[in-house]
Design goal:
Elements lengths: L7 E7 L6 E7 H10 L2 H16 L12 H15 L9 H10 L7
Antiparallel strand pairs: 1-2
């Protein structure tokens, strides 16, 4: 999508370490369509990112969260939760009791 007219929003994804920089040009209308296509699990993260663009850069101490590797793990965790995998602990004591009941893993 290319748009250079008035009202266009420039979205750029810059990767560090000398990788290529890709720039997409999207109108506000196109951006709204993209937002409508977001899966529910991505809405909160997209909101944080857009607020960061509007109010200023995302806090550098939180930038790790937006790396492709971390986002991949977030999607994996969301899928596991959607499948009912995992456990919920309602207190720290309950969590620690569970940890103490799990046999130690064998080291290589």
């Amino acid at each position: 999508m290319a748009c250079t007219g008035p009202g266009a929003i420039v979205l750029s994804l810059a990767e560090r370490a000398g990788r290529r920089v890709r720039i997409w040009f999207v109108t506000k209308a196109e951006l709204h369509k993209l937002v409508d296509e977001l899966p529910e699990t991505a809405v909160e993260g997209a909101g944080v990112l857009l607020r960061g663009i509007i109010k200023g850069p995302v806090d550098p101490d939180q930038a790790w969260f937006w790396t492709p590797e971390w986002q991949s793990g977030e999607r994996e965790a969301d899928a596991e939760i959607a499948e009912g995998a995992g456990a919920v602990f309602h207190s720290t004591d309950e969590f620690i009791a569970h940890l103490e009941s799990v046999p130690p893993a064998e080291s290589d």
